[in-house]
Amino acid sequence: MMIYIPTPLRTYAGGKDAVEIGAGTVSEALDSLTSTYPELRKHLFTAEGKVRAFVNLYLNDEDVRYLPEKENSQVSGEDTLSIIPSIAGGRL
Amino acid sequence: MSTLSITESVYEAIRAHGEETYPHECCGALLGKPGERGWVVADSVRAGNTRTDSAHNRYNIAPIELVRIQRSAREKGLEIAGFYHSHPDHPAQWSATDFAEAHWLGCSYVITSVAKGKAAVTNSFLLAGTTEEDKRFEQERIQVEDAPDESTEEALQVSTSIRTKGK
User: Which end of chain A has less neighbouring CB within 10 Å, N or C?
Assistant: First the structure.
């Protein structure tokens, strides 16, 4: 599957905007990604190993948090995983 | 100090967006490429503000919209260079909320103050640092450039106008 890397994390992924990964689940894909690029780990996960709250993971067009099996969701070679930090703010 | 280079049309488009959504905050993404002194913005994409409960002082872009923007940028050979939003009847300075919710390290956050429905000051802040723990906003210079045309690079350089913040 293809994992799309957001602008701020490309520095830690060899400058790539997309990485091809062979994996059976979302979790395996993230493990493989962070094994290849260890510096990504602290940007994606908390010290407890949970995906950081502001990091959104989208399997194709679906939010992984809302999939029945979440990060254990199965993936195939045609799937894409987008890593998207959140965007919010306001004047107060 | 880094510089955000932005075409006149994009600069005007993001300011106009703030006027259109007044008294609510507008928001969107900036697409471009890294330059020697900072991001060079070539395009902007409007996004919906999902904070309909408090749109006059909050904004949020739905993650799925960001996914599509990122996909679109890639197809155009561009990157998400940063984001913009407006501060209705409030200075064009980042707020504690803006800082707490800023996670795109290395990207530019552009804020336009909209006073009584009219775009006033536009500022840009680079989210500097390498982690959530050492991140900080650094004000950038905004360089507004005329859109490139078919003429030579020399002509482009001559026609380049430089505006610092606070048009």
Answer: C
Write the ipTM.
0.94
**Choosing among B70, B111, B134, which should be mutated to test the A contact, i.e. which has the most A CBs within 10 A?**
B70
Contact: B87, A43; criterion CB under 8 Å: no
Backbone angles phi, psi at B127, to 5 degrees: -80, 95
With CA atoms as reference, report the closest residue to A92 among B32, B140, B93.
B93
Three-state DSSP state, B160: coil
pLDDT by residue (tens digit) across B75-120? 999 999 999 999 999 999 999 999 999 999 999 999 999 999 999 9
B101 CB neighbours in chain A (<8 A) are 54, 86-89
Q: Are A64 and A73 contacting, i.e. CB atoms less than 8 angstroms apart?
A: yes
